[in-house]
Amino acid sequence: DGVSEVLAHRSDNLRDKFVEIPCSEDYDSHKRFAGCTPRKCGRGVTDAIITREEAERIRRIAERGLSLGGSDGGASILDLHSGALSLGKHFVNLYRYFGDKIQDIFTEEDFALYRDVRQRIQQRIAQVFGISSSAMYLTKPTFFSRMNSTGAKTTHDEYWHPHVDKVTYGSFDYTSLLYLSDYSKDFGGGRFVFMDADSNKTVEPRAGRVSFFTSGSENLHRVEKVQWGTRFAITISFSCDPEHGIGDPLLG
């Protein structure tokens, strides 16, 4: 693994930690949007915009949704926008599959909290990168993930491969992760790893912690395999291209 350095320990309470790194050329092959497309690149971590209590409430939304399905392998996803839910080795559309019963699972308050948290993350990213929050669009896929130590059954379960978000999803310009459980308390392994040429920089998840970064090759990353316990997070991503924008999820 070469040299590893911890960017954020679970025990840290970080107001704002930001590391600027040179932008890759990935953005050059896409249309540029003034006031949004990254010109300043890097990665940040903050424990100051979402409280632990809010993170716990959001985790309960994930737990309720994922209790309806779940992957046979170690990684399950729930996308409130598209309705995609892991079920066995496949995905189903939560809204079609469960119909009106959805009202018994989620409340308007759940969706309002989700929207509020998404807005706060969007504003923080805009502030740190010096762009306009209104120039950023929520984009897909934006989803909850639940990971445990069960072996992978399909390629969808293999979450640990190194990847670049801008390459995997062309629409991504800024990626964020909100952690909903604690490294070394709720699960082992499962740290987030930025893979730089000289060393790896790890982020230890902690409930309420937001990690955010520009989505190009300057932030090649992977997630370690979860060794024990259950790791919950939500990936919330933004595009500078309005054509790739999606709305907040709505109940019913």
Automatic annotation (TrEMBL):
<keyword id="KW-0408">Iron</keyword>
<dbReference type="GO" id="GO:0016020">
    <property type="term" value="C:membrane"/>
</dbReference>
<dbReference type="InterPro" id="IPR006620">
    <property type="entry name" value="Pro_4_hyd_alph"/>
</dbReference>
<protein>
    <submittedName>
        <fullName>OGFD3 protein</fullName>
    </submittedName>
</protein>
<dbReference type="GO" id="GO:0031418">
    <property type="term" value="F:L-ascorbic acid binding"/>
</dbReference>
<keyword id="KW-0479">Metal-binding</keyword>
<dbReference type="InterPro" id="IPR005123">
    <property type="entry name" value="Oxoglu/Fe-dep_dioxygenase_dom"/>
</dbReference>
<dbReference type="InterPro" id="IPR039210">
    <property type="entry name" value="OGFOD3"/>
</dbReference>
<feature type="domain" description="Fe2OG dioxygenase">
    <location>
        <begin position="140"/>
        <end position="242"/>
    </location>
</feature>
<dbReference type="InterPro" id="IPR044862">
    <property type="entry name" value="Pro_4_hyd_alph_FE2OG_OXY"/>
</dbReference>
<keyword id="KW-0223">Dioxygenase</keyword>
<dbReference type="GO" id="GO:0005506">
    <property type="term" value="F:iron ion binding"/>
</dbReference>
<dbReference type="Pfam" id="PF13640">
    <property type="entry name" value="2OG-FeII_Oxy_3"/>
</dbReference>
<dbReference type="GO" id="GO:0016705">
    <property type="term" value="F:oxidoreductase activity, acting on paired donors, with incorporation or reduction of molecular oxygen"/>
</dbReference>
<keyword id="KW-0560">Oxidoreductase</keyword>
<dbReference type="GO" id="GO:0051213">
    <property type="term" value="F:dioxygenase activity"/>
</dbReference>
